[in-house]
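Its record is quoted verbatim for completeness.
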Amino acid sequence: MKFGTYVGAWYTTYYQVGVNWASQDYDPFNDTDLKFDWAYPDYNKTGYAEQLDLLMTGNYFTQLMMKDNPATANLAYHWWSVEGSLKGGKYITRNKMPLYGSIDMGNVDWPDQKSISNTIKYILDNATGGVMLFDVVHVYAPQYNRLKQPLWGALREGLKK
């Protein structure tokens, strides 16, 4: 049996709900690249990545690439984009387990189905585990997604190799 969990990909604020999904090998208090003013000495000891066989992060953002926004274009990490949150997730978990990126197919304001497909492709190419699709009801029931249309085409295109 494999043991895993889902967490929001926004590590910068996830501490507020008492969850430290990082590796114990990652020390946010002493990280000179990412400055976390909320971290305290030994916070890394609360990390639980080593306890997992897999981790799914909710990369629920319409901004795919950091370069798509001038405010994030020159950052190494940005927790509020798909690219930045996947990079950050791999950085803080130290690749202790396969990382599955997740896409919210229905509750996010996607401009079109192509954007959904591109996000699925990006996650498949950049996550170490694969992609988790939230939630299948959004694919087959148009009334449950913001595009108000079946998303089978977006899913099919996104999963193409």
